[in-house]
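go over my protein:
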Amino acid sequence: MTRAKHTRRLRVAGIALLVVALVAGCTKSADKSPESLVKGLLDITDMPGEWQETQRDAFTSRTNENPSIDPSIWCPDASDEAAGLTELAGAAGADVEMQMQLDNAEAPRLMRLQAWRNESVREYFTRVVAVVNICDDAKWTEDPGVTQEMWKIDGPEVGDESVSWGSGLVPPKGKEMAASMGHTTVARIGDVIMVLQIGDYRTTPTSETLSDDEWREIVQRAADKLADA
């Protein structure tokens, strides 16, 4: 065999291997169906503490049982910017819900983790960031006298870009209602959106609530697992 022929064969073989690698990589990145995404969501073995899974679902249409993917009660000032977020999320996605009973709380801690992939994830994330900036340190009252508040949280920085915020609900004085406190992170991981929410109900002033450090740990675990799915 001449040196020229040998060189051509090596080039052809190299190109063939490159094509195979590219096809394999594209196949993996494109496999973000709801069924694939739900496998990338946290399960109880990934979670610190004694969590119980109450729902795990891959869906192609949204119902009352599936998340609307409008992940917060937005402040009134952001109503225009928040309009259309549900439509940008599309119809398909994956969802897992868990709860954990705390020693000094009458109601369990709740977690909802959602993910979806479509052509609007970048626009969705940009709109969410705009809404969170508008609602930072916002406080408003709704009937029947329930006060709600929302504030931006620094970090955790996960995925390609992410934004986090806290929210609270305080019942009017004299009403037998539980106050609530929640953390939410929305992250864009490539062409996938992840929404992670954890909430506590405070029935007494000493009721345990999730710390920011605990929150950051769970968010990091969720983003890492979804990125590897």
